[in-house]
Structures are given as C-alpha cells and as structure tokens.
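Aim 2 progress update. The chain analyzed this quarter is reproduced below.
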Amino acid sequence: MTASEENLRQMRAVVFASVTGSGISEETAESARLVASELVGNVVRLCGPFAPVVVQVRPRGDHVLVQVHDPEPATLPERRGQSPDSAETETGRGLWILDALAPGWQVDPTPVGKQITCTLPAQDFVNA
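Predicted structure tokens:
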C-alpha cells in the first residue's frame, strides 16, 4: 500500500479484523493495530506521504506477528535517551510503545529497504 490517510484507515481495520478473526481478543487486536499504526507513521515521517509500505499481520495462536517493510534501509529506529514522559521529548515515543507491547522487536535489512518485526503475546483468546 501507499501510506495515504485512506489506506491507513483501511490498514487499521484489516489488522483488527485479521487478529479478532483468528479468535484472539480485541485487546490484543487493538495492540496490533497500534503497533502497525506507529510503524507506518514512522514510514510517513521518514519517507513522506504515499511512501510504499508493506504491512503483514500473522496471528499464530499464542502470539501475533506484525511486520512493516519500508523502502529506507539506512535509517534505523533509535531512542534519544529521554523517557517517554519527559517534557523535552518531542518524538520517539513510538519505540516505547513497541517495547511495552512487543518486547524484543527487531529490524532486519532487506534487498529493498528494511523490515521491522514485532511479536505481541496473545494469551487472551476469545471463546468462540
């Protein structure tokens, strides 16, 4: 997709539906949607609006894999050393969100950019 406002709305809906459709709770689906939104928002800030981005969501029983691929291989996520609630912190809060929801997220280079992979625990299943 390209990172347009309309596509972002659709992506959020698809992420939520994919997770809940696999029997995983709405709470976990909301976390997956938030992680995907944060990562795509970073792509827009980095590459500009309408940047090409691939979002994959894979519910896997006890976890949900959220992967976002962007075309910018050189710029990697980094913390600026401030806490997320610091008054001086203007950006970088998304990494704290990733740490809280998907500890151990990783960045891997690809032939045409990079991919960020987040694994969210899905211990709360909906009884269908």
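The beta strands are 54-59, 63-70, 106-110, 113-121. The chain has a mean pLDDT of 84. These observations will guide the mutagenesis experiments scheduled for the next reporting period.
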